[in-house]
Design goal:
This protein has 254 residues and is an alpha+beta fold. The chain has five helices and ten strands, in the order βαββαβββαβββααβ.
Amino acid sequence: MLQLVLHYDGTGFSGWQRQPDRRTVQGVVEEALSRLCAAPTAALGSGRTDAGVHARGQAVGVRAPERWTAATLRRAMNGILPHDIWVASSHAMRDDFHARFSATARRYSYYVGTDGAAASPFRRGTEWAMDRPLDRALLAAAAARFVGLHCFRAFAVRGTAPPSDDHRCHIREMRWLDRPGGLVLEIESNRFLHHMVRFLVATMMDVATGRRPLADIDALLLADTNDEVSAPAPAHALFLDRVEYPADLYLVSP
């Protein structure tokens, strides 16, 4: 079993998951794998990124013929993949490794542009240009409300999780950092629900711009539906940065 760690520019993809008649990351990766392995070869991702979402740490599990080592498969994949996907690293894993279910944490970042140049064509594909003043104290207070174990049913697309799912996620870290030209949100959790980060960002932006009170966050964390959540933030400013696994799943320490 091998793990491939992918970087990709999500602009030209209809998300991660394979879809008929649409260009997806999984579809392109599986096409390349099948060419190299001379047989249909599945690529199991750690999660499904939405259309337009980027990655610099998407973990992918692959069962390749024994002739392929982690290093040789990475090199061969990078020789045939298109310019918007790159295998950053590869690892030999135990046979019971599962890219999705073995993960212990996932980390995302979200970029917000606050200066006039955020609308530049060189930035608008990877940042959400915000043209209203932001209250940084409110933004920090909003992020702090989400840290810990909570039910995030109000921050997920309805009907995308099984009825038995309690929608509980443990956010271990969530903070807004200043950067040249704007802000970046760094968030790490044991799991994420569909659109969850984008709902969180949009709600915090509405609080920080005065569109809704800070107390709304406490109410949303207790809500049974997503009826009152802010519309999700744009996908193009979101990056999947890293997926973590137990060290003993690696045959060679990464």
